[in-house]
Structures are given as C-alpha cells and as structure tokens.
Amino acid sequence: MSRIARRGALIVLEGCDRSGKTTQCRKLVDALNTDGIPAQLWRFPERDTAIGQVVSDYLERKCELDDHAVHLLFSANRWELVPKMLETLKNGTTLVIDRYAFSGVAFSAAKESLDFEWCKKSDVGLPRPDLILYLNLGVEAAAQRSEYGGERYEQKPFQKRVAENYAALMDDDWKVIDAAKGINELHDELKSIVKNFVLKGDVHGEPVGKLWT
Ligand code: NYM
User: Which residues sit with their C-beta closer than 6 Å to ligand 1?
Assistant: First the structure.
C-alpha cells in the first residue's frame, strides 16, 4: 500500500540580537519532540563547518574581513547545508532554524558599505521557510539583557538599523511576536502557533519553495 510522504515544515525564528531566539528555538524543538512531532534545531551561522568557523572568528573579532566577503560567507554557510536541509525535511522532520537569510540581509545591509538589494542576491533560491516568526524586542530592552555587547554588531545604533532592515523585509506572512514577555509565556505563545501550523499539515503535500523567486 502506498503512503503519501509527509515532509517536515521549515520554520525560522528571526530577530535582533538578544531577543531570545536561541532559548525559544530550543524549547520549541523539545516541546515538538515531546508531542511526537519529529523536529530538529538548526542555527545560522552554523559555526561547526569550515566556512562557519571563519564566520565565527569574524564575529568574535579574531579576524577582519571585507564586508562583501563576510556577507557571502554567511550566505555560503547556508548553501552548504541545503542538501542536508532538504533531505531532513523530506524525511518528515520539521526544522526550527535560529536565524536565516533575513539575518543575512538585515545585518549586512546595516553596514554603510553594502546595498540592501545586493545583500539579498546571494540567498535568492534558498529553501523558502514555511513559517517565519519574528521576535520583536526594542533595542533598549535588548541592551539590558545579559551578555549584550560581547560580539561584533551588538551596539544599539547598529541594532536599530538591523530592526529597520527587518521591517523592510517583512511581509504579511511573517508572524511578529512581542518578545518582551517572560520566557515561559513567550514559549507558550510560540508553541501554540507552531503546533497549530504543523498539525494543520498544509505543507505536507507542498514542495519546498524557493526564497525570493
Ligand atoms: N548574522 C547572522 C549575520 O550578520 N549574517 C547572517 O547571515 C546571520 C545568519 O551573526 N549578531 C549575525 C547576527 C548575529 C551574529 O548570530 C551571530 P547568533 O544567533 O548570535 O549566533
């Protein structure tokens, strides 16, 4: 008897630095797995690859790179994982991804040297997320959070420009979530959105789309 393959959903969390994405991605994946929905946590940059290692050194200020070059490395770090991403989705596992191409544009285009449209080009055609959740937290509130300022980009004027770039990327399909609330309250809200989305099953019969095409 044949059975229609049910692919996993591609879910992305985005937001400025210290908006709580990493904690929430972790809690979401745990909750999905507990409820019997196969899910994995991914993140970009994925610092464990050779390309990701260079990106990580750059973020930790261990090396300097031309703005264009590092933008393309962030993008290459996504492209190098596309075959594994598609295979994992095909096998029915949902991916919850901590940052994606939207971070690529929002952060790079916050630099005066880089043009917004140029920044989008290297990510055109990546697997398109089925669901994008934007954790919205004011720049002042983010700056109060622990460890703020440790890495490159974690300065208030820069983060303000990042937030403006996110606003320019957003469309009606993005779900904007107020991230100023407590960890558990935020988790409950995200879990409810994601579980409803996954269980609705709209993506199961649909091929993975291509971003910005
Ligand atoms: N970042 C992340 C970029 O500048 N471009 C990208 O394409 C991606 C995915 O890296 N400040 C920036 C945003 C963050 C930093 O991310 C590291 P994280 O989630 O703090 O590890």
Answer: 17, 44-45, 59, 74, 98-99, 103-104, 107, 151, 153
ipTM field: 0.98
Average pLDDT (58-82) is 98
**pLDDT tier, 146 (very low <50, low <70, confident <90, very high otherwise):** confident
Q: Does the domain spanning 10-200 belong to CATH 1.20.120.50? A: no
**Cα–Cα distance, 136 to 190 (Å, whole number):** 13
**For strand 94-98 and strand 10-14, is the pairing parallel, antiparallel, or unpaired?**
parallel
Atom number of ligand 1 nearest to Cα 100: 9
Q: How far apart are CA 140 and CA 162, in angstroms?
A: 14
